Amino acid sequence: MFCFQCEQAAGGTGCTKIGVCGKQPDVAALQDLIVFGLKGVAFWAHKAREKGAIDRDIDVHMIEALFTTVTNVDFDPASCAKVAQKTVQMRDKARALFEKANGGPFKGDVPAAAGDWKLPAGQAEMVALGRKHGVKAFHSDPDVNSVQNILLYGCKGMAAYADHAHILGKDDPKIYGFIHKALASMLDAKLGLMDFVGLCMECGKTNIDCMGLLNKAHIEKYQAPTPTPVSIGAKAGKAILVSGHDLKMLEELLKQTEGKGVNVYTHVEMLPAHGYPGLKKYKHLVGNFGSAWQNQHKEFADFPGAIIFNTNCIQRPGDQYKDRLFTWGRVQWPGVKHIDGWDFSEVIAAAQKAEGFKEMPAKNILTGCGHDAVLGLADKVIAAVKSGAIKRFFVIGGCDGAKPGRNYYTQFAEKLPKDTVILTLACGKYRFNKLDLGDIGGIPRLLDVGQCNDAYSAVQIALALAGAFNCGVNDLPLSIVLSWYEQKAVVVLLSLLSLDIKNMKLGPTLPAFVTPNVLNFLVENFNIGPIGSVEEDMKQMLGA
Ligand code: FS2
Ligand code: SF4
């Protein structure tokens, strides 16, 4: 196997024997086969679209299958094999769609991925086929290969957000159309490095629309988040822990647990759910448990109830909690009970069987500071900047992870001067969201904007501030310090680059899939750089 799509890539270059995440070589090969097959789907779907033909099943399969291959989502070979089978069916459907719209077969050359290759019947044979289509085989030029991988990972990240929006009944044909175009472009031998750089920027732009669509879906369904204190203690009683990003799944579980004496807790990226009026109205949504995803093995053993993952990031489950662990949606782990659909009675039964919590009072942390809430304070914020009470804003956001270098983000938040405000999003916030950073004239110094997809909200805040101060985002007293781990962080980074945001710092390490030449390009054009020492970076950003 060879996989280098996330920050944990072994030795900083790639996982070759088994994934650091726990991905087995057979799953890696099946996921490579899925990606190869999806390029074939994209070839035909893109051509069909050019002739005005669209098929919803093909579009939805594209995003679901891409999401399946995101880091820490699907570890089950049987489920990946099913996705590969459906991918081949969708390729044939997309080809038929094109041929109908075209009034006959395609006259040009058909690339191998889009040809009529058959999927072998056995899983072992599928794995063998997948091994021939790894990420190193995309392109013979290492720089083009690098940019194609950036584009693929951007599409994977965007597919996850598009899937959440789709589940909430929001679809945008433009987003599906772009993903087909992007994957089809990887089969076009005429395209060169700068074509793929352009597609990466288009991917970033399209993802702003995609995150905007998801934001709209959340707000229409659950109303705009409002600043909300969330308990990190426990209430006496039976308990279910929900991990992931999917708010609709949480809502359904809240409906089904109402009046059953079972409290619901959020884990990691579900924390911002507490800020939505349409979700916090459920009195049995009682708090947030644990820290970021990489600590689940230790923390879940102590959770005395049922646990369900609705999106990444799942890790190898421990025996202490495997029998009360469930997956839903795209997430799968072999041997862990998967809930297919919307009936959570098995999860509730497992919670009722488990011991439950004793009362454990603890402090609150604040969430729900999206753009509606922050811009509701716009006058106060602008006045504080003009008076010098707020000197600078720092967006410190992105993923958390297991590597030791991530203490940087804790120290950074701790050491920032008291006249600065932090906007944070995604699970990287768990490095500092329990610190008491105080407030500036009633404006909290730590504002939790939301999940990683709420980068959209952070962008809206930055654009509104730029509008208020009549300057560009790069001229604002604003610095961006990102932490990355998986492909959603890749697409958020592409979105920020597509807005021409410069001078960002990225850590804890740079992606293994970025070659030195591609990195030079990013440095020259965007002055993006790796994190260094907290003191030096902060000095630079504060202009001291
Ligand atoms: Fe964190 Fe994991 Fe949000 Fe990522 S919980 S690294 O999926 O998308 O951030
Ligand atoms: Fe390794 Fe990350 Fe790929 Fe898992 S997803 S195999 S940790 S590079």
UniProtKB/TrEMBL annotation:
Q: What is its EC number?
A: 1.7.99.1
Could you tell me what this protein is called? Hydroxylamine reductase
The residues that the entry says bind hybrid [4Fe-2O-2S] cluster are 245, 269, 313, 399, 427, 452, 486, 488
GN (gene name): hcp_1
The chain residues annotated with the modification Cysteine persulfide are 399
Q: What does this protein do?
A: Catalyzes the reduction of hydroxylamine to form NH(3) and H(2)O.
Q: Which InterPro entries match?
A: HCP/CODH (IPR004137), Hydroxylam_reduct (IPR010048), Prismane-like_a/b-sand (IPR016099), Prismane-like_sf (IPR011254), Prismane_a-bundle (IPR016100)
Q: Is Heme set as a keyword in this record?
A: no
Q: Does the keyword Iron apply?
A: yes
Tell me the organism's taxonomic lineage: Bacteria, Pseudomonadati, Thermodesulfobacteriota, Desulfuromonadia, Desulfuromonadales
Q: Which residues bind [4Fe-4S] cluster?
A: 3, 6, 15, 21
| Record keywords, A-Z | 4Fe-4S, Cytoplasm, Iron, Iron-sulfur, Metal-binding, Oxidoreductase
Q: Where in the cell is it found?
A: Cytoplasm
Cofactor binding, note field: Binds 1 hybrid [4Fe-2O-2S] cluster.
Which coarse location class describes where this protein primarily resides? cytoplasm
Its required cofactor(s), as named, are:
hybrid [4Fe-2O-2S] cluster; [4Fe-4S] cluster
Q: Which reaction does it catalyse?
A: A + NH4(+) + H2O = hydroxylamine + AH2 + H(+)
Family to which the UniProt record says this protein belongs: Belongs to the HCP family.
Name any one Pfam family assigned in the record. Answer: Prismane
Q: Which organism is it from?
A: Desulfuromonas versatilis
